Amino acid sequence: MASLQSRYLEQLEKNPTGKAVGFIDANCHTEWRTREEFHRNAMAHAARLRQEGIQKGDVVLIVLPSNELSATALTGALHLGVIPLLIAPPILQGAQSSLGEILLKTIERTNARAVICASSLENMRDRLLATGDGTRYLFESEIPGAEPEDIAPVVPDENDIAAYQLTSGTTGFPRVCMWKQGPVLAALDGMVAAMKLEPQDICFNWTPLYHDMGLVNNFLTCITTGVPMVFQSPHDFVKKPALWLKGLQATGANTTWSPNFGFALSAKMVKDEDLEGVRLDHVKAFWNAAERIHYDTMLAFHQRFEKFGVKKSALKTNFGCAENVGGATFSDPDGEYLVERVLLSRLQDDRIAEIAPDSTPDNETMTLVSAGRPHPGMTVKILGDDNEELPEGHVGALALNTPSRMIGYLDDPESTSQALVGDLLKTGDLAYLRGEEVYWAGRIKERITIRGKKVDPSDFEPILFQIDGLRPGCFVAFGVDDSERGTQRIVIVSEVQDGNTKEPKKLQREVRAKVNLGLGIEVSETVLVKKGTLTKTSSGKRRHRHFRDLYLAGKLDEHLATAEPVKE
Amino acid sequence: MDAIPEAVKTYILEEILDEPEEIEASTPLISGGILDSIGSLKLVGFLEESYGISVEAHEVNVDNLDSLDAIHEFVKSKQG
Predict the structure, then answer these.
(1) pLDDT on residue A568
(2) A516 vs B18, B36, B44: nearest CB
(3) Is the dihedral of CA B31, B34, B37, B41 positive or negative?
(4) Could you give the ipTM of this predicted complex?
């Protein structure tokens, strides 16, 4: 029976001295590990987990930065047949207060047997240990804490659960996708075929291992196919985006991924002198995925780095989601990505993508980037409001008939039944087809994606609830595309309580600070409006999309709140 | 204001923030919500490049980066 583990072991056996994983530092020095070296390091983690009594089918949470430690800990865990779940550790020590709640709830929900904790969680140590639920906590400074041992692998079969993965939820808490072995392998096979990934390729990855892009599109793909992979710290990339491009040159890597914001950040921040001597002619694929792909960003990246050898045909596009395990649609691996310039009014009013005549002014059109075609073995359908299949060019719900779909959300049958309908996975996205090409057009629900990270408006509720001066529960939150940054910026609109005496500026700062500390993300703008402005639906739901439209049209201005004077 | 805090303030205002903010030497940058985690990392990249220092992951914390004063002290301590 095939599994992630059996494929990994096949590669190890086939070429133990071949390059497996490289780790590049901020000076562009790369430490390569052969497959047997990497495996030996992973076996120390396997030995440690076994000492802790961890067995096949146990859930192990890995809350580590993306580096050699997390890669070997994950591999060691997989060797024992455990179900890993990777979670983002806090970047700023002592600053992300909601992570503790998410971690504790995830431990409880998954019945985790062990948690491997980053040093940035040290300030939570007592709180974690106090849970007294039998979960083992291994801190970064204490791992692996065992010598590598020759431990017999536990090889699961296709029907065993391979991994869990967090994705955004609608209750202020992430959902847990459950992935079986068979679908994970189907995802990897589909991706390798669609990308035309070859054994002589080298993948370069700065995206976090706890994100689908780092985990599936890079790490799992590489260790199961024998394609060498280079790890770069996501922090190094954010601090100095030039290191991504320099790393591609230094390692000879020819395939790499980034959310759209990474392309925008690089185009804006990298200076010519940062790339002295760098040539990128050898890079065959810069894959853009995980958030809306901006045509402006694609153009800017190409124009900025063409003189360093970046070919237009090397810019690739993809759509994927955690519910599908990995990438679903891919632009042509041998050609250029496609775009369409469509009439804005037809798209917005009729939900039809009609090609704009050349003479149409730019402000009456929108240029959409194709996310490519479904990988072999998958078909795409666009559904109307009654689940009828829509013709080409009509915008509707994106549904995948896919061999790689999740088996559901852990302990969430309602959400599962909304996502998995018959043979289809409904992704929650809006899209249209042109031939086989899938053009992404938005989200059905109001999820926000900032730098590839998915945020649900409900995530803000517990934070806003704590702020005196805001009407509890009376807010909307939405994302607004920011083409300069290549991602979305977050706008929160909240009603102000009767009798509020705080100055708007003070309340706005408080919102920004508390969201920043709670979720680790930046609110670009907080709009404070009068009580009664943010009317809800008849069923009491918030109308994020409606008020987003009013905000963009400048129609919230007449509802702005002011502070009441303090009474003497 | 000394040269380092002044340069840091200029960087934050020009490269990180969407809207102008009044930033004084003691204004809380992280706990006051001005810098998020990505903004903090960008700032660290700026400090490393501008002042020839290397910042370890565990040093990217509220104590070291929460105000212009704290950043000034941190940079001076790293420069030895």
Answers:
(1) 42
(2) B36
(3) negative
(4) 0.85
Query: In CATH, what number is assigned to the domain containing residue B40?
Result: 1.10.1200.10
Contact: B57, A235; criterion CB under 8 Å:
yes
pLDDT digits (tens, 9 = 90+) for B34-73: 888 888 999 999 999 999 999 988 888 888 999 999 999 9
For chain A, which ranges sit under pLDDT 50?
A: 567-568
Domain that holds residue B45: 3-18+25-79
- Asked if A235 contacts A91 with a C-beta cutoff of 8 angstroms, the reply is yes
Rounded Cα distance between A272 and A370, Å, is 30
CA distance B15 to chain A (A): 10
Which domains are present in chain A? 4-324 (3.40.50.12780), 338-443 (2.30.38.10), 448-559 (3.30.300.30)
Nearest-angstrom CA–CA distance, A231 and A347: 41
CB A145 within 8 A of CB A137: no
Cβ of residue A193 closer than 8 Å to a chain B Cβ: no
Shortest CA distance to A472 belongs to which of A436, A444, A497, A439? A497
Alpha carbons A352 and A441: distance in angstroms, whole number: 11
Number of structural domains, chain B? 1
Predicted pLDDT at A563: 61
The total number of residues written for chain B in this structure: 80
| 3 state DSSP class of A492 | strand
Which chain B residue has the Cα nearest residue A119?
Answer: B58
**pLDDT tens, position by position, A146-184:** 999 999 999 999 999 999 999 876 666 789 999 999 999
Structure-token match 């360093």, residue found: A308
Residue pairs spanning A and B at CB distance below 8 A: 80
| Sole residue written with tokens 């918030």 | A542
> Which amino acid is residue A477, in one-letter code?
A
pLDDT at A267: 95
Mutual angle of helices B68-79 and B3-11, in 10-degree steps:
120
List CB contacts (< 8 A) between A521 and chain B: 36-37
